[in-house]
Design a protein that fits this description.
10 helices; binds 4'-deoxy-4'-aminopyridoxal-5'-phosphate; 332 residues; Cysteine synthase family protein; TrpB-like_PALP; 37% helix; 15% strand; alpha/beta; six-stranded mixed beta sheet
Length: 332
C-alpha cells in the first residue's frame, strides 16, 4: 500500500529508541541505555511535538484563526518547530529570542519565513531587563502586556505556561517509550527547560508503573553564569529548577514528578556527545550529551545493575556546528 504523507504535521513524533551498545560496552556498563532520538522529528528536535500540539490546541479553542500571527519567545528549537508548522499552515510567525543562540537557529527560522527579534531590541522589554537585572519572567510579562496587547490577530504561544506542552508528552512521548520497551523501563532521564518533557512523559510512565524513577537534569554550578564567570558555556535549552525562586520555575514544570535531580556540567555533556558520535555514530546536541552523561552515571550505580534506562535526546548536533560542542580543542 502506498504511504505518502501530505503534511510535515504527520511526521511529528514516533521517534526511534536506540540502545547505544558500543558505548555501553566501552564503559563496561551493566545497565542498558536506550536513547530516544528526537532529531528524527521533521525539524530535528523534540520541540516539533509541542509546536504542533500548541498550534492545533489553539486552533481548536478558537485562539488562532487564519490570518493571525503566531508569536513566541524561545532560545531556539521551539522557534524552529513553530516556524515550520506556521509555514505549512499559512500563518505568519514572529519570535523574540531570549539568549545568545547559535547563528544556525536564526537562519533556519528565516528560511521558514519567520521573523526574529532580540528581546533586548524591543525597547519596552529592554527597559524591564535592565531594571530587573535580566529577569525573563518580568520581560515576558512586559512583552505580553506592553507590546502584544496593543496588536490584534496575534496568538502568543508561551510554551512555559501552555498546558498543551506537557500534555503532548503525556499523550505521545510517554506511550511511545512504554510501547517500544514493552513496559521494561526502570529509569527515565530528561533535561528540564520548560519541564514539558520530564513532566508529561514522567506522568505517563508513573501512571503505568509508579516504580519507574524519573531523573530531571539541571545544569551544574560551573555551567551557570556567576560573578567569576559571567558567560560560561551553557547547555542550550536547559535551566535550573531547584535553587531558584519558585515563581521563576515554568508552570509547565511539575516539581512533584521527579525522584532525583541530577546536575551535569557543560564539559561533561560535551564529552559524552563527542564520545557517542565516535562509538555509535549519532550526532547530537549539548543537552543530549548531558542526558547521556547522566544515564552513564546512573548505569554505573551498583543498585542499577541489569536495569533499563531511557534518555530523551532533544536535538541534532548539526545545530551546534558553530559552537564549541564538536571543537575538540576546546575543553577536552
Ligand atoms: N534541550 C534542548 C536543546 C531544548 O531546546 C530544550 C527546550 N528548551 C530542552 C532540552 C528541554 O526540554 P523541555 O522544555 O521539554 O524541558
Amino acid at each position: 500500500m502506498a504511504k505518502i504523507y501530505e503534511s510535515i504535521t504527520e511526521l511529528v513524533g514516533r521517534t526511534p529508541l536506540l540502545e547505544i551498545k558500543n558505548y555501553e560496552k566501552k564503559h563496561g556498563l551493566q545497565a542498558k541505555i536506550l536513547v530516544k532520538l528526537e532529531y528524527y522529528n521533521p525539524n530535528q528536535s523534540v520541540k516539533d511535538r509541542i509546536a504542533l500540539a500548541m498550534i492545533e490546541n489553539a486552533e481548536k479553542k478558537g485562539l488562532l484563526k487564519p490570518g493571525y500571527t503566531i508569536v513566541e519567545t524561545t532560545s531556539g528549537n521551539t522557534g524552529i518547530g513553530l516556524a515550520a508548522i506556521a509555514a505549512t499552515k499559512g500563518y505568519r510567525f514572529r519570535v523574540y529570542i531570549q539568549d545568545q543562540v547559535s547563528q544556525e537557529r536564526y537562519q533556519v527560522i528565516h528560511a521558514f519565513g519567520g521573523e526574529t527579534i532580540k528581546l533586548s531590541e524591543e525597547p519596552a522589554i529592554a527597559k524591564v531587563l535592565e531594571e530587573t537585572g535580566g529577569d525573563f519572567v518580568a520581560a515576558i510579562k512586559a512583552l505580553r502586556e506592553e507590546v502584544l496587547s496593543k496588536e490584534k490577530d496575534i496568538f502568543f504561544v508561551d510554551q512555559v505556561s501552555n498546558p498543551a506542552n506537557p500534555a503532548i508528552h503525556e499523550a505521545t512521548t510517554g506511550p511511545e517509550i512504554w510501547e517500544d520497551t514493552e513496559g521494561k523501563v526502570d529509569i527515565f532521564v530528561a533535561n528540564v527547560g520548560t519541564g514539558g518533557t520530564v513532566s508529561g512523559t514522567g506522568r505517563y510512565l508513573k501512571s503505568k508503573n509508579p516504580g519507574i524513577q524519573i531523573i530531571a537534569i539541571q545544569p551544574g554550578e560551573n555551567s551557570l553564569p556567576s560573578e567569576e564567570n559571567p558567560e560560561p558555556e551553557e547547555i542550550t535549552g536547559v535551566h535550573p529548577f531547584e535553587g531558584i525562586p519558585v515563581e521563576r520555575v515554568p508552570q509547565t514544570m511539575d516539581l512533584q514528578i521527579y525522584d532525583e535531580k541530577f546536575e551535569v556540567e557543560t564539559i561533561e555533556a560535551y564529552r559524552a556527545a563527542r564520545e557517542v558520535a565516535k562509538t555509535d555514530g549519532i550526532l547530537i546536541g549539548t543537552s543530549s550529551g548531558a542526558a547521556i552523561h547522566a544515564a552513564t552515571q546512573l548505569a554505573k550505580r551498583p543498585e542499577n545493575e541489569g536495569k533499563t534506562i531511557v534518555a530523551v535526546l532533544p536535538d541534532t548536533g548539526l545545530r551546534y556546528l558553530s559552537t564549541n560542542l564538536f571543537n575538540e580543542e576546546f575543553l577536552v
